[in-house]
# Entry
Amino acid sequence: MVGPATPLRLPLVSSSAPTEGAPRFGARIGLFGGTFDPPHVGHLVTAVNVRHALHLDVVILMVNNVPWQKEGSRQITPAEDRLAMVAAAVEDVPRLVPGRTEIDYGGHSFTADTLQTLAEEHPGAELFTIVGDDAAAGLHTWTRYDEVVEQSRLVVVDRPGGPVELSDDVEWIRVEVPRLEVSSTDLRARFVDGRPLDYLVTEPVLDVIVQRGLYGARRDLTETDHS
Ligand code: ATP
Ligand code: MG
# Structure
């Protein structure tokens, strides 16, 4: 069952019980932004493995409001629906949380602004911006990307699909994660042509898709019988 998306609340980073809402000094926060249209196992495997490798206290799957890079190129699922899918995807995953900051800003989503907000909300936290190498390759086109690399450490994961040129004038942390050739684009195509979605998206996400009638979801979405 998917409830309303909860606002970001960082998990405890010390064993003593801190005051609710108090800043968690020393927290290591991963920011993993995306359109998540829909979120898939490639996103989850990436977030879980980067969190583990870098000992992050939390990874926020931040749902872009209006992804300016994608505007006009296709119909994008409403942000609240994408957030509901992300919330469902991480609801049972420790230390992965959905982020709605960019939806609350409204307008275009810029990572530099989001990092600024996180820094203000969590003073003293160390911030990490997590991207697949396809996204990293376009870093120079990001609005105020210099602020992104100043305010956070950039974490890049490999993504299947051919070698991607990365700039050598910024410092990257490379994290090896299992390379899964899964994309939201392919998943959307599967909804259209009826190929199976099994094991590419998780069941809680499929539930949201069916409940909300996303992607023209109209029939059994999987080959396996979950009834
Ligand atoms: P689309 O096909 O619509 O562009 P996508 O699968 O690329 O969707 P996004 O929401 O665009 O997903 O990606 C968000 C972030 O997740 C980006 O940094 C992207 O590089 C990364 N990412 C997406 N899929 C994978 C994957 N299979 N492995 C590793 N990283 C991924
Ligand atoms: Mg993409």
The mean pLDDT is 85. Residues 28-180 form a domain with the Rossmann fold fold (CATH 3.40.50.620). Residues 34-37, 42-43, 46, 131-132, 134-135, 157, 159, 180, 182-185 surround adenosine-5'-triphosphate (ligand 1) (CB under 6 Å).
